[in-house]
């Protein structure tokens, strides 16, 4: 994979991220683009026979409307349940995230206990579960968890993962995690919750645990969810809880409609004096 030009300095706004000019500006989160041959599409589940008769933009608008009205009338968390109930899940790839599968198959993921918050239909949970790694997928939506359980029932690795309906921000598991993977969860929560997200991530990780963020959407659209993100957005809140980037690179395994708007970030807790001489510039 192509190298990412990245320079790390010690100040919070420290990243000089390569390839910024290739970001799709003004693009929507769930942008309508041709499907990459053989690859996933971020609009329709790539392996699903289901094709919605409703155009993508309309479904994105409906999804945002449902969340907005739930937020105004009762609770934003109920809004997620409504979206899942009504099939308004335009973010759903319908298959595991290619980059995560790549990291798993190349032995580049920590073993032990892994957590995927906001796991949705759970493809990533199942994809990286194995005898050396137990994966827990959590989601606030009962319907999402039901769907994840149904889709994965009968998987040969079923004993290595579990799904749980719970709120990431209030959940207190009995054991900490070696790995947390965040993809399209950070961008889905309200931006004012980001410092709380970072604190919770840190609290849930073992002292030598690792956070992997697939940062998306890196573009300049307004509003959300999904809210636009930058690597600095993550760095600002994670630095505040003592977590440091060890690698930030472009994700060149992004599905076609998201290509150029994703970066992989790997983060660790600081142990005493910074043990990190800098962020890795290597490619995946
Ligand atoms: C944009 S979706 C992403 C789903 C999945 N990560 C994916 O890529 O397909 C965000 C998910 O986060 C869940 N969610 C939102 N707030 C949550 C919370 N406080 N705790 C747990 N899950 C939450 C939603 O129900 C939704 O399934």
Can you put this structure into words, describing what you see?
Helix content is 26%, strand content 19%. The protein is globular and about 40 Å long. Helix 1 (56-73) packs antiparallel against helix 2. The protein has a seven-stranded mixed β-sheet with strand order 5-4-3-6-7-9-8, sandwiched between helices. The chain contains seven helices and nine strands; from the N terminus they run E-E-H-H-H-E-H-E-H-E-E-H-E-H-E-E. The chain has 284 residues and is an alpha/beta fold. Strand 1 (6-7) and strand 2 form a beta hairpin. It has helices at residues 56-73, 76-85, 98-105, 123-128, 142-152, 194-204, 231-239, and strands at residues 6-7, 16-17, 112-117, 133-139, 161-165, 177-183, 205-215, 243-250, 263-269. The longest helix is centred in the N-terminal third of the chain and has 18 residues, at 56-73. The N and C termini lie close together (6 Å). S-adenosylmethionine is lined by residues 77, 80, 91-92, 117-120, 138-141, 144, 167-169, 183-185, 188.
Reading the helices and strands in chain order gives EEHHHEHEHEEHEHEE
Q: What class would the helix/strand composition place it in?
A: alpha/beta
Number of strands: 9
Q: Please give the order of strands in the largest beta sheet.
A: 5-4-3-6-7-9-8
Shape descriptor: globular
Rounded to the nearest angstrom, the distance between the terminal CA atoms is 6 Å
Bound molecules: S-adenosylmethionine
Question: Which whole number gives the mean pLDDT?
Answer: 80
Largest sheet: 7 strands, mixed
How much of the residues is beta strand, in percent? 15-25%
Radius of gyration: 18 Å
Question: Unreliable runs, pLDDT <50, ≥5 residues?
Answer: 1-51, 272-277
State the share of residues found in helices, binned by percent.
Answer: 25-40%
Alpha plus pi helix count = 7
């Amino acid at each position: 994979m192509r190298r990412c030009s990245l320079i790390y300095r010690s100040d919070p706004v420290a990243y000089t991220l390569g390839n910024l000019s290739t970001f799709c500006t003004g693009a929507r989160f769930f942008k309508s683009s041709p499907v990459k041959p053989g690859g996933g599409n971020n609009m329709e589940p790539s392996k699903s026979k289901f094709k919605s008769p409703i155009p993508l933009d309309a479904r994105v608008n409906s999804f945002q409307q449902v969340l907005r009205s739930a937020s105004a009338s009762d609770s934003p968390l109920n809004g997620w349940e409504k979206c899942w109930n009504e099939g308004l899940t335009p973010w759903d790839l319908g298959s595991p995230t290619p980059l995560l599968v790549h990291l798993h198959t190349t032995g580049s993921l920590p073993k032990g206990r892994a957590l995927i918050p906001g796991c949705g239909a759970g493809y990533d949970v199942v994809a990286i579960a194995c005898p050396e790694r137990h994966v827990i997928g959590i989601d606030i939506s009962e319907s999402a968890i039901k769907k994840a359980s149904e889709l994965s029932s009968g998987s040969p690795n079923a004993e290595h993962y579990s799904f749980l309906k719970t709120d990431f921000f209030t959940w207190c598991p009995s054991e900490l995690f070696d790995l947390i993977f965040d993809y399209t969860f950070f961008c889905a929560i309200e931006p004012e919750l980001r410092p709380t997200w970072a604190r919770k991530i840190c609290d849930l990780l073992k002292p030598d645990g690792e956070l992997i963020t697939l940062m998306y959407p890196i573009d300049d659209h307004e509003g959300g969810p999904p809210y636009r993100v930058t690597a600095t957005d993550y760095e600002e809140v994670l630095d505040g809880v003592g977590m440091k980037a060890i690698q930030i690179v472009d994700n060149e395994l992004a599905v076609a409609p998201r290509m150029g708007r994703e970066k992989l970030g790997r983060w660790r807790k600081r142990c005493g004096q910074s043990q990190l001489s800098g962020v890795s510039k290597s490619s995946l």
